[in-house]
Amino acid sequence: MALAAAAATFRPRLAVTASDTTDTRRRHWKAGEFPFPTSSPDAPRRRTSKPAPEEERDSSGSRGGRKHWKAGEFPATTPDGEPSRRRRTPIKNVKKRLDARADAKAWACTVTEALADRIAAKNWQEALQVFEMLKEQPFYHPKEGTFMKLLLLLGRSGQPSRARSLFEEMLSQGCNPTPELYTALIAAYCRNGLLDDAFRLLDDMKASPLCQPDVYTYSTIIKACVDDSRFDMVDALYREMADRGIAPNTVTQNIVLSGYGRAGRLDDMEKVLSAMLESRTSKPDVWTMNIILSLFGNRGQVELMEKWYEKFRGYGIEPETRTLNILIGAYGKKRMYDKMSAVMEYMRKLAFPWTTATFNNVIEAFAESADAKNMEHTFNQMRAEGMKPDTKTFCCLINGFSNAGLFHKVVGMVKLAERLDVPMDTSFHNAVLAACAKADDLMEMERVFRHMKQIQCVPDATTYSVLVEAYRKEGMTDKIYGLQQENPSLVPTDLVHV
């Protein structure tokens, strides 16, 4: 065999030869380390680090199973039959060079990453501080993408004036504006209700040859107009888009469709949907499907909801998790528990995950019917499956236990929400206030209302409605008058004279 032939022709040397002294890899042996046998055959053999027998090494020189070498493949010999030694790759030195190169740029990477981290954390104050520090460095030149992220962050954080200052600073540094940057600033104005400023900026764009508004610019302003129920301006913007040859996309149409649905303008909604079905640039998608199903589901029109669900399926639009959650919520409100369970089983079958919204819809359905047992069972199953309850979960639980007259469990839910660090916003306090009013515990209701104001949780119209109704029930007109003086916009004057 080839292995036997190779073993017969090769033997490890037991004496130092001249070729050994000229090898490129010399080693200075320490005392007692010399790997060759001593001169005396009777002397005890020292432990050496000699290599393993060749037949126990694989092709890479490491220990392993036996290998039958082919002719000319034996790794310990050269074509001339002389032993060869492989030089090891200086991995340690390569690592040192890479580490040194990384250390040379460590400061720059750290600061730029710090800016990205502040933006991701939506911390606009620290983001601006890091940005100012970064601009002072000679190696750094702000790019369009950085200004874009900062403008969007400031707009979402309610800082339109700072967004405007940043935009002007960008222009002063010679950075050319783009339609995307203009749109980001317009979005900052729209998010904060400054529609007049947004329209003035739109006029500036139309006057600039290189920054003409596009479909995203118009979609941003249209959304602000829809949120403010200024549908006359929506129609004017649609006409302006048509004059400029800009076709609305699916996102634009979905925005308007949702606005018409919230305002109850079903005829206008139907026109938009018909236009989408006939269009090539704004075909309906799953968001369109969700908007229509939510509209009819919230109205309790289950048959129309099911009809449109089948229509959208016929158009080739497949449902997503949110779509099925909408169906569950609609069936739950109508107490159609068999269909609600069927949709949940369908989700399991098709591997759609049950989300927090799924459980919230089921809990809300049982809460409205004061079915505390099934509501609590659903909540326990939710926690067992690792779903984290949110503020809506606890609002539904508080309402459900209150409807069932289990006020001691309302207190337990409030304490559990505190332990789980659930955000206690205005809706949470409204649920607690309503439970106190239903239990005729006005002292606790007033204590919760004072605590609400102490933590700067702003009351809304629902808050004052609960308080006024509780005081009206007890004939406490002086208390209602005090609330009206505190917030005249939310407590009408006619409610004081009862």
UniProtKB/TrEMBL annotation:
Pfam hit, one: PPR_2
Membrane-spanning segments: none
InterPro entries assigned to the protein according to its UniProt record, in alphabetical order: PPR5-like, PPR_rpt, TPR-like_helical_dom_sf, TPR_mt
Basic residues bias: start-end ranges: 85-95
Positions annotated as PPR repeat: 143-177, 178-212, 214-248, 249-283, 285-319, 355-389, 425-459
Transit peptide listed as a keyword: yes
A molecular-function term among this protein's GO annotations: mRNA binding
Keyword set includes Transit peptide: yes
Residue intervals of the Pentatricopeptide repeat-containing protein-mitochondrial domain: 341-451
Keywords of this entry: Repeat, Transit peptide
Chain segments carrying region Disordered: 1-95
Family: Belongs to the PPR family. P subfamily.
PANTHER family: BNAA05G30910D PROTEIN, EXPRESSED PROTEIN
NCBIfam families to which the protein is assigned, alphabetical: PPR
Protein name: Pentatricopeptide repeat-containing protein-mitochondrial domain-containing protein
Organism the protein comes from: Oryza brachyantha (malo sina)
Lineage: Eukaryota, Viridiplantae, Streptophyta, Embryophyta, Tracheophyta
Gene: LOC102721986
